[in-house]
Each structure stands twice: as structure tokens, then as C-alpha cells.
Amino acid sequence: MILVNLETKVGGVKLEHPIFNASGPKDVTREELIEIAKSDSSAVMAKSCTIEPRMGNAEPRHYDFKGGAIGSYGLPNLGYKEYKKIFPALVEFGKPIFASISGLCVEDNKKMAAEFSEMNSVAAIELNISCPNIIGKPQVGYDFEQSEERIQEVSAICAAGKKPLGLKLPPYFDFAHYKTIAEIINKNKVSFVTCINSVGNGIVVDLEKESVVIKPNKGFGGVGGIIKPFGLANVRKFRELLRREISIVGVGGVFSGKDAFEYILCGADAVQVGTAFMQSDTKVFGKILGELKEIMQRKGYDKLDDFKGKLKEI
Ligand code: SIN
């Protein structure tokens, strides 16, 4: 039996293995974050926070369907000051802690980035420029001028604080858009990108009620789970376009070790689990990891570099 070494790095942060939780599901409260810290997740990623606490959008705001889920939570979170108290308490579990920020304006992001950069307990910061569910606020990641401003200002602050900065990106679908955003990212001190956030503004229909299934935003919400082909494509394309030192975290429809393997084959350095964690519990990280190991052993790979980014064309 081959011994596999699953160690990896995200933005210079060492991880024991590539599987950890995505920002969003079950990572809002202290209790939820402790559960993740105790699990087989290789890092603890927190819910994207804002300056002030937020209750989020009206219920029902989540709906599971075969293969995926739709949601419009509206960034419910405890406010960044509460996470500043929680993160030091997670250090005893010995895993890197990622803060996620999603300010409602650039000044909010700068303030949170500056304060989290000063914290020893925070290994890295993920700047979410892709939340599709703040009613009246378009996704920043689709506005290249605004994206450039936010990335420039926040990356300078994180660089000054010597904290790796990552970007949680929306899915891109057009090669011209990939090129534009990649050029902006390459010009700035970005250490990793996480792609993709949920595919925004989908609709799921309840056949019997002849209605939408979630209340906020007239039923439009971010779709997760069945989006894997788009997640894989974004990882693949960004690996081609981004500076080599920028790590890529793949997310979107990771339910199994096979899904994780596919993301790494497309070029991901690590893989986050979102919808599958939402629909189950913390055991999902160990399950995916075990399956990934089995696939690697069956193929005779003893480290991630043996297959990372080596997707073949036909
Ligand atoms: C939400 O809170 O509605 C989702 C956040 C995100 O996907 O960025």
C-alpha cells in the first residue's frame, strides 16, 4: 500500500491535506467554528463577515434539491468584532484559521483587513467579492473597475500586515472576462484565489405550489452543488492565467474524493466543501479525504504534485 503525502499550501499557509470547509455553511457561530476545528477539515474558514452583525435575508432562504441547493442568506454573521474574539479561542485546535470578509463598501473591507492582519491567530484573509445575495448590491467581481479598486486597496493593507490575501471569486463564463480579472489579480499582492462562489441568481420551482422555493429576492438565489463543471473550468482557466505563485482553491460541487481529485487535476492546490457540508455534517471532510487517498493509492500517486494541474486534452 502506497503511503500518500497530502500536504499542500494555500497562499503560503501550510495545510496537512487539501480538504477544508468553504465560507458559508455552518461557520457563523463560535460553536459551529469549534465543530469544524475539531473535525478532519484541514483549516477553519469562517463565514464572510461585515462590520455590523447581520441577521441576513428572510426565511425560507435555503432549499435542497437533488444534486444541489439554492440559497439567499444575505451574509448572516456576528460582525467582525465577534470573530476577533472567537479566532484566538480556535488556535488550540492547531489548524490555520481563515477570516473571510465581505464589507458592504471598500472602507469596511479596509478596516476589517487591517484589524485581522494584526491578529496572530489569523493565518490568512479571504476577501469575498462575489456574494450574489445582498439585495440591491451587484456582485463586485463582475464589475472590473470596482474589483480593481477593492483588490488594490485591500491587498496593500494585507501586504503591509504580512497576511496572505485570497479572493473569493464569482464564476466566470467568458474567456474575455477571465483575462480581465486575471490581469487585475496578477498586478496585485494576491496570494490565492478561491473559485467559485455559488452561481448567482438561479431559480428553483416548486411544481405543486407553482412557486419559487425561497423567499428573498423574489426567489432568485445562489446555486451550489450541481455547479462543478463551472468550478472546474474556472480553476483550469485561472491556473493558466494567474502568476504561478498564486494558489488556487477549488470549490463547487465537491461531494466525494473523485470531485476533489478532479479539482486538483485541473490545478487546484486545495479544495473547499460547501453544499455537501451544509447537507450533512463534519464527517464529510474525513469521508472526502479518505476517498481521495484511495483514488491516489489506486493510481500509484504518493503526492498531490503527481497529478496537480495535469488534466490532459484529447
Ligand atoms: C450569503 O450569505 O447569501 C452567501 C454568501 C456568499 O455566497 O458569498
Can you offer a commentary on this structure?
- Helix 7 crosses helix 9.
- Strands 3-16-15-10-9-8-7-4 form an 8-stranded parallel sheet.
- It has 314 residues and is of the alpha/beta class.
- The two termini are 31 Å apart.
- The relative contact order is 0.17.
- It has a single domain, classed as Alpha-Beta Barrel (TIM Barrel), CATH 3.20.20.70.
- Bound molecules: succinic acid.
Characteristics:
alpha/beta, TIM Barrel, 4-stranded antiparallel β-sheet, 16 strands, globular
Task: Give a topology summary.
Elements: E1 8-10, E2 13-15, E3 19-21, H1 30-38, E4 44-45, E5 62-65, E6 68-71, H2 80-90, E7 97-101, H3 106-117, E8 124-128, H4 144-160, E9 165-169, H5 175-187, E10 192-195, E11 199-202, E12 205-206, E13 211-212, E14 221-224, H6 228-241, E15 247-251, H7 257-265, E16 270-273, H8 275-278, H9 283-299
Helix pairs in contact: 3-4, 4-5, 5-6, 7-9
CATH architecture: Alpha-Beta Barrel
Question: What is the helix/strand order?
Answer: EEEHEEEHEHEHEHEEEEEHEHEHH
Bound molecules: succinic acid
Estimate percent helicity: 25-40%
CATH fold-level name: TIM Barrel
As a whole number of angstroms, the C-alpha radius of gyration is 18 Å
**How many discrete structural domains?**
1
CATH class: Alpha Beta
Q: Quaternary status of these chains?
A: single chain
- Tertiary shape: globular
Number of helices: 9
Mean pLDDT: 97
* Count of individual beta strands: 16
Widest sheet: strand ordering: 3-16-15-10-9-8-7-4
